[in-house]
Automatic annotation (TrEMBL):
It comes from the Bacteria. Residues 10-164 form the Nudix hydrolase domain. Belongs to the Nudix hydrolase family. InterPro entries: NUDIX_hydrolase-like_dom_sf, NUDIX_hydrolase_dom. It comes from Streptomyces malaysiensis. The lineage of its organism: Bacteria, Bacillati, Actinomycetota, Actinomycetes, Kitasatosporales. This is Nudix hydrolase domain-containing protein. PROSITE patterns: NUDIX (PS51462).
């Protein structure tokens, strides 16, 4: 079987590189996922687009509200990740869905990562499938937005972890007052 050069996009997600606090020492808000019988991993808030979402940014706002009871500002595109998406189901902890051109591959999932600032958060407002019918635990954690802080937890997908490690200063520059 040979791979097609162009693969259909079968799923799009919106995820927040969500920063809070002073720009001199910002913290990143993550969700620690602990599933029964698996090692924990840390993900950025967000999820898949739904039919009612007119745009990827609208999906981001909905997901952040569902998962954190939060509002965000200064939403700036930062990073896009494309991974194979198979018919078998949701992504694994590493954010991948099987080998490229693997049997059962139906296309790709495009993950849009936006850097944004936390405007407000009320965890008592959390709602949606992660809260109503949880599979394991969804704990909100804060880590310093530094190479050391990100390395201290198992942020997935690995492509995001590598991007952040190489671009801490650049990500912060996306929120600078003089960006335009």
């Amino acid at each position: 079987m040979s791979c097609m050069t162009e693969r259909p996009v079968v799923k799009r997600t919106a995820r927040a590189i969500l920063l809070e606090g002073d720009t001199a020492a910002p913290r990143m808000i993550l969700i620690k996922r602990t599933k029964p019988g698996e090692e924990p991993y840390w993900i950025t808030p967000g999820g898949g687009m739904e039919p009612e979402d007119a745009t990827v940014v609208e999906a981001l706002h909905r997901e952040v509200d569902e998962e954190l009871g939060a509002k965000v500002t200064d939403v700036v595109p930062a990073f896009v990740d494309t991974v194979p998406h198979t018919a078998e189901g949701p992504a694994g902890a590493d954010g991948t869905e099987g080998a490229e051109c693997a049997e059962g591959a139906v296309g790709v999932k495009v993950q849009h990562f936006f850097v944004c600032r936390l405007a407000s958060m009320d965890l008592s407002r959390r709602h949606g499938p992660e809260v109503d019918e949880p599979c394991g635990e969804y704990d909100v954690v804060r880590v310093p937005f530094t190479r050391e802080g990100i390395a201290s937890v198992g942020v997935v997908p690995p492509s995001l972890r590598a991007y952040l490690d190489a671009n801490i200063e650049g990500v912060l520059a996306l929120l600078a007052d003089d960006l335009g």
